[in-house]
Each structure stands twice: as C-alpha cells, then as structure tokens.
Design brief:
single chain; 482 residues; alpha/beta; TIM Barrel; globular
Length: 482
C-alpha cells in the first residue's frame, strides 16, 4: 500500500470531507517565495532530479550532514547522481522529520512515484523522474500551470533587474508572477565594505550619485516606484527583531556619512540607522497600498567557519530567542501614530512567541480591512504539522482564523508546491477532528467556506493584486502512478 494515500494526514470523516470537497481543488496563491524569476522567464527545463530537488536545498543538506554525509555530497563537487544517491540513503533516517513527508509527497505529486525512497529504490526513481522531467509539463512554467498556481511573488533586491519579470508578464500566461521588494542590505551598515559595494550597485541601477543620505532615500524611493510599475505590491524584511530605536534625520545622516567613508558604526548607531530606514520603508508601503512582511526570529549564520566557506543560506541557521514584543510594538505604534501603518504580515520563527505575535496584531487592527495585520503562516523550522498547528491555534485563540490569508512556500525549489497541499490537509484535519469531537458545529458549509477562504479567497481579497494577462493555459495534466 502506498504511503501517500488520498487521505494522508486526514484522521476523521469530517476532515476528509473538508479537504476533498473544499481545499483540494483551490488554486495556489503563493505570495512569498524565493524562486528564480530567471528560471520562470526562461521556462527552465530541469535536466535531472538533483537540479530540481536538491540544488540549493539547505533543509536536505542539514539532514545529510547530521546523518554523517560528507560536505562534498551536499554543496561540494560530487557528481549530481552521487549527491542525489547520498540523499536517498539519508531519507529512511529522516522518519518523524517533515522531510520524510515532503519527500514522498513530492515524488508522488510530480512523478507519480509511490515507492519509498531509499538506496534500493534510488536508481529506478532517478531514471523515472529524469524521464518525466523531459516533458513540458515539468518545465518551470509547466509546473506553475500543473499545480494551478494563480499568483506567485518572488523575493528581489532593489538592485536586481526587473527584466525577467517584464518577460514573464509579456508571456500572457494567466499566471501572475510578481516581484517582492526586499531591501535588507540597505540596513546592513555593520560591514562598510559590503554596504558600500551594495550602495554603488544601487547608484548604478538608478543612474544616480549616492553620496548623501538624501540620495539614498531618493534611490530607494525610485526603485520602490519601479517595482510598483512592475506589479509589485509586497515588501519583505528578514530581521532578527524589528528595529525601533529613536533616530533623527541628522543622526541617520551622520551614520550614513560615517559608513560611506569606510568606518564601521557602533552597534547602537547601526540599530538607529536601521530603525530610521524601517520607518521610511513603512511609509513608502503605506503610500502605495502595499503589504509589508516581517520575517522575525532567525539566528543566522551561526557557524562562522562554514559561513566563510559557503556563504549565506547553506543550512547553518537556527531559531533565535530575541526579545520581540517591545520593539515590534514600538515600530507598529509609531507608524500607526503617523497614519502610515501598511497592511502587514508578521512571521514568527520562535514558537514560544506565537502568542506574543497573535495578540500583538490585535492591538493595531483598525476595521479598514479584515485581518489588516496578519499572523504569518508557520515558516522555516515551523512549516511542519506541529508548527502549523501551533500557529493556527494561537491565531484562533487570540484573533480570527477566518481572516487568515493562508500558506506560502517561502521556498527556493520548484518541487515545493505540495507544501500548500500539506498545509491544507493539516488545516482540515484540525477543524474536522474538532467537528467530530463536538468542539465545532457540525456545519460543513460554514466551516468549508472558511477553509476555502483560508486556502485562496482571503489572499485574493487581501492583496488585491493587478489582474494577470489573458490565460490560455491548458488544464492540469494528470500523471500516471508507478
């Protein structure tokens, strides 16, 4: 019997009905991911299972290292098949890690493969998957169509070209692929060399001289406008915690001049400058009706040796225990006092802060929009069954689950779209089990409507993105089970 059945994770009759009748067929609205706009614009055809599945996947690398696999098979120079085979050998040892669920869900949904992945089945799985990857429905754009992706937002630095997004828009596929504005590097003054190199790139993109703080603000505003013209309606910041140190214009100018001259700021000066810019970005977003996303609570690049060897986003990050409530509340309160508080999604990485975030958003709801401030979906180390349930429970107990805009992949892999299915199954299981326990009304129309809203409709209303170009794509292709 296959491990991934049609009732995977659905423990009750009510849960199964909720999922199959309300959630399963909803389109995907993936409002935050790290997929490559270039891959979509060029409709990348992946050559093998390694390219689409393991290339850049630090979740898998962490598990492989823990299992005793050499770095050569993670980020090193080993052959693509050998890296894949090392992963296949690791998979049986990931039992109770969400990677075990995701691995087999992805193999089933992309390639129709029901067998468990291990060193015995690795060769056959590799051959069959590679044969399927040659088909057009598993190109980058084919995958978006296959999984009924309605909207997808990438993550883009202000210095990035928007040319690939313009090419995607001109394709007229009916799928919205929009940029997301991620200006984190404007805040990183602690390393003057890196900061000044980035400022020089920004100046070149904007065709401006950026020697004063006013020039920087003008350049960032210009790129914000450029992104808006390209359909962007979302910004994003990946921060340890929200910056909210008092900072005058004069102080921010002094810090900028100091760093631009090559001198490192003090930690307090760096925090003040970041706080100044975060308010500036909040005002820009509010003026244009954008949604601001704050990803808070990661402890990044903990292993100095590996960071120097491999760089960022290679699997050496963890959950941080930064104080969140006071600085985040101060930031929101200052924007609110100015009438400049944009729509906002607050993602929390530390489960001990779930209730902090869920209660804090209620302080700044203003009745202008359902769920103007959102408790963001469980992310990174928490986007698994238990972490999803924690986030849903905290939001339900302290706010309104009915206003939630749902799941997003936050992924760098084109194999990650079943994460939406995984979330939907967890959601329906939670609600369905409570229906059968008498904790929720046995009213499938009422609760089914909420499920549909969380899976798709709430996001459509909340973001109000520009309409997509005409849609001439074919219906999703069904793959045979092997």
């Amino acid at each position: 019997m296959a491990f991934i059945t049609e009732d995977f994770l659905l423990q009750s009759k009510a849960a199964r009905r909720l999922y199959h009748e309300n959630a399963a067929e909803q389109p995907i609205f993936d409002y935050h991911c790290h997929l490559s706009a270039r891959d979509i614009a060029e409709d990348r055809q992946f050559r093998n299972l390694y390219e689409i599945w393991l290339e850049g996947d630090h979740y898998k690398w962490r598990a492989m290292r823990t299992h005793g696999v050499s770095e050569r098979y993670c980020t090193g120079d080993a052959d693509s098949y050998d890296k894949y085979f090392a992963w296949a050998q690791t998979v049986p040892h990931t039992l109770r890690n969400p990677l075990y669920h995701w691995t087999h869900l992805e193999l089933q949904r992309y390639f129709g493969i029901d067998s468990l992945l291990n060193e015995r089945t690795a060769g056959k799985t590799w051959d069959w998957a590679n044969e399927r990857l040659a088909d057009k429905d598993l190109s980058a754009h084919g995958i978006l169509s296959k999984f009924r992706v309605d909207t997808l937002c990438t993550t883009d630095d202000p210095v990035d070209s928007l040319g690939y997004h313009e090419r995607i828009a001109s394709r007229g596929s009916g799928i919205r692929v929009l940029p997301g504005f991620r200006p984190d590097r404007a805040l990183r003054t602690e390393d003057p060399i890196a900061f000044n190199a980035w400022i020089d790139k920004l100046a070149a993109v904007c065709n401006l001289d950026v020697t004063r703080l006013a020039h920087l603000l003008h350049a960032l505003g210009k790129r914000h406008n450029d992104f808006h013209q390209c359909g962007c309606r979302l910004s994003d910041h990946g921060l340890d915690f929200c910056y909210a140190e008092p900072c005058t214009d004069r102080k921010a100018e002094q810090v900028f001049d100091k760093v631009r001259s090559g001198s490192p700021p003090t930690p307090l000066e760096s925090a003040k400058f970041a706080s100044f810019l975060m308010l500036f970005f909040g005002r820009l977003d509010a003026e244009k009706g954008w949604t601001k996303q704050l990803h808070l609570g990661a402890y990044r690049n903990a292993n100095t040796r590996m960071f120097r060897t491999l760089g960022r986003d290679t699997g050496f990050d963890s959950i941080g225990d930064w104080p969140q409530a006071a600085p985040l509340s101060n930031y929101l309160d200052q924007l609110d006092r100015e009438n400049s508080l944009p729509k906002m999604i607050l993602y929390n990485l530390n489960p001990s802060d779930d209730y902090v975030f869920a209660t804090l958003i209620g302080n700044f709801q203003d009745g202008s929009l359902a769920g103007k401030l959102q408790s963001g979906s469980a992310w990174w180390f928490l986007d698994q069954k238990e972490g999803v349930e924690w986030q849903l429970n905290a939001l339900s107990n302290c706010g309104l689950l009915s206003s939630f805009v749902g799941m997003t992949t936050d992924s760098r892999s084109f194999m990650s779209f079943p994460r939406h299915e995984y979330f939907r199954r967890v959601l329906c299981n939670l609600l369905g089990n409570e229906m059968e326990a008498g904790q929720l009304p046995n009213d499938e129309e009422m609760i089914g409507s909420m499920v549909r809203n969380i899976c798709y409709d709430n996001a459509v209303k909340y973001f109000a993105f520009p309409a997509a170009a005409p849609n001439d794509r074919a219906a999703p292709t069904q793959v045979a089970t092997r």
